[in-house]
Amino acid sequence: LAMVTDLRRALENDEFVLHYQPKVSLADLKVTSVEALVRWQHPTRGLLPPGEFLPVLERSGLMQPLTRWVLREAVQQAASWRRAGMPLQVAVNISPRSLLEDDLPARVLAVLRGAELPASLLQLEVTETAVMTNPERAAFVLTQLQARGVEVAIDDFGAGYTSLALLRILPITALKIDSSLVSQMLDHAADEAVTQAVIDLAHRLGFSVTAEGVETDALLDRLAALNCDQAQGYVVSAPLPPAAFEGWLTDWR
Ligand code: G
Ligand code: G
Ligand code: MN
Ligand code: NA
């Protein structure tokens, strides 16, 4: 309860920050997209990871203002990088509750217009759980966004229960394979078999595939051999504050 009061104040005082983690193409290791990940710069407790406050925000009905802040901040950052000659696509995580809001498409488009960012430079990451909660509603919302050029990815795929039938009807362009599946792949043949099958299925449906939580070069090589399109994880870069990310990007290219 004290935390809810703290979070209300944090929203008013602009205490949240975004860190950015790249996704790279496995073919040439070029950065294809950058995921925005929120942290709370708490006045006394230091920098808090999302696991420590997002569940409280979601339960207390404060996710909506946070999602709005994250969207605006990430889109403005992408627009600023673009003006500086770095046209990077930014990916924003959309919570289950935010996905089901009627005005999400209008809000997203207004933020893009305000920042003069092309819609193709924004990707929304939605979890399979969020989509499963209300598939018709989710498909309706995502179709409107995709019609305007916003990319949509299913996040944490393979961690929960996704109906494979749902993949046929969802207006998505990308699928992110959950780190729990990918990270054990080199030691567990069954994990590799499932990962391979997911990659093949996604490609047959016309989606690009990103593997999450990649921590070693050996895993990068194996994923490339399986025709996975992109990788994200500590072997490439941890999530970094904007200035540190810009430094990383300069060294990477
Ligand atoms: O950054 P980290 O790996 O600790 O993120 C942990 C979880 O928090 C991930 O599942 C991620 O999707 C989620 N998360 C991070 N930033 C945001 C955000 O801005 N909005 C939402 N809804 N989830 C986020
Ligand atoms: O669910 P989502 O993919 O949005 O969350 C990404 C989370 O995974 C972030 O909290 C991020 O800090 C974390 N993460 C990113 N790369 C790695 C990695 O290589 N290994 C591990 N263990 N966690 C990672
Ligand atoms: Mn994500
Ligand atoms: Na994920």
Topology:
Blueprint: H1 2-13, E1 16-25, E2 31-42, E3 46-48, H2 54-59, H3 63-83, E4 90-94, H4 96-99, H5 104-115, E5 122-127, H6 128-133, H7 135-147, E6 151-157, H8 164-169, E7 174-177, H9 179-182, H10 189-204, E8 208-211, H11 217-225, E9 230-231, H12 242-252
The protein binds guanosine-5'-monophosphate (2 copies), manganese (II) ion and sodium ion (NA).
The site of one guanosine-5'-monophosphate has 10 residues, from β2.
Description:
It is a single chain. This protein has a single domain, classed as TIM Barrel (Alpha-Beta Barrel). It has helices at 2-13, 54-59, 63-83, 96-99, 104-115, 128-133, 135-147, 164-169, 179-182, 189-204, 217-225, 242-252, and strands at residues 16-25, 31-42, 46-48, 90-94, 122-127, 151-157, 174-177, 208-211, 230-231. The chain has an 8-stranded mixed beta barrel, surrounded by 5 helices. It has 12 helices and 9 strands. The protein is globular, with a radius of gyration of 18 Å. Bound molecules: guanosine-5'-monophosphate (G) (2 copies), manganese (II) ion and sodium ion.
Give a quick rundown of the structure.
With 253 residues, the protein is an alpha/beta fold.
Salient structural properties:
253 residues, alpha/beta, TIM Barrel, 12 helices, binds guanosine-5'-monophosphate, binds manganese (II) ion
